[in-house]
Specification:
Length: 250
């Protein structure tokens, strides 16, 4: 496939290596400094676009891909409040988009088991639940997209939690969770040097705690998943989440 990469930072560079190893060609690499090269004419040469840029640029980039009529795989996080309008635009005008807060196989297994666990724990209301996420210091958004997906999976399957709230805690701070209401699910975010991504769901009662944790050792799993998604979506029409690609429900 001819792939255009929008965003050529930590993720873009690993995606380039994995896509090239899988015999794809990266013919266009866009970052902040050459963003004027992101033209409709250039985009039309792509079989598929892979987008890992920034929360501030992702919406414009998606719009350009729609205008060029090229399928797009979106890994960028921090824009999900626009999901409903984007989905409508994509479906109404016959475009193709697949997005994921996290493309790694391990995290997608985690997402699935998280929902099953939440359903089970709903029978034991004396456990309170919270989500913790740790990422590197350069991360622009909080909470992580992955933590939002985890929280939504819990809220969908639990009677006691109605919405999530985020607290970003710096090293050494005590979390001030006094203002969190019982029906709110706390997502606590930590930023620590070089951490690629760690997510923990904690069920806590007076007598014990249950912790369910995913630790990424590096970014290779995210990048491979994004390339697999590009291969999967390139000849499809519609608006997809990565869940449809993995389909653990089958
Ligand atoms: N879905 C997943 O599996 C997954 C995994 C890792 C990271 N991410 C997300 O991917 C995004 C990128 O992560 P990263 O670690 O590579 O960040 P990064 O900061 O290393 O790279 C961001 C890149 O975007 C470029 N950029 C800035 N403005 C741009 C524009 N207008 N058009 C195109 N590129 C532009 C920057 O120059 C830089 O090269 C983040 O939102 C992150 O949360 C998602
Ligand atoms: O490094 C990042 O930034 C990551 N972003 C995604 C998120 O917000 O969940 C996936 C994990 C790494």
């Amino acid at each position: 496939m001819n792939i255009a990469l929008l965003g050529y930072g930590k993720m873009g560079k690993i995606i380039e290596k994995i896509a090239t190893d899988r015999k794809h060609e990266i013919f266009l690499k866009i970052d902040f400094y050459n963003r004027q090269d992101l033209t409709i004419e250039n985009l039309k040469k792509a079989d598929v676009v892979i987008e890992f840029s920034t929360p501030g640029s992702v919406l414009d980039n998606i719009q350009k891909c729609f205008e060029a009529g090229v399928p797009i795989v979106v890994g960028t996080t921090g824009w999900y409040e626009h999901l409903p309008e984007l989905k409508k635009k994509c479906l109404d005008s016959g475009h193709t988009m697949l997005y994921a807060s996290n493309f790694s196989v391990g995290v997608n297994i985690f997402f699935h088991v998280n929902k099953v666990l939440a359903k089970l724990m709903n029978n034991y209301p004396y456990y309170d639940v919270q989500v913790e996420e740790i990422h590197h210091m350069q991360k622009l958004d909080s909470p992580s997209g992955t933590a939002i997906t985890i929280a939504e999976g819990i809220i969908e399957n639990t009677d006691s939690k109605k919405e999530w709230v985020n607290v970003l805690t710096s090293e050494g701070d005590d979390t001030n969770d006094e203002n969190i209401k019982n029906d709110q699910l706390l997502i606590e975010s930590f930023r620590i040097d070089s951490v690629p991504g760690t997510h923990t769901v904690i069920y806590d009662s007076e007598v014990d705690s249950i912790e369910f944790k995913h630790t990424a050792h590096n970014r290779n799993g995210f990048a491979l998943g994004a390339v697999l998604a590009a291969e999967w979506v390139q000849n499809k029409k519609g608006f997809f989440s990565v869940e449809e690609m993995f389909d653990f429900g089958k």
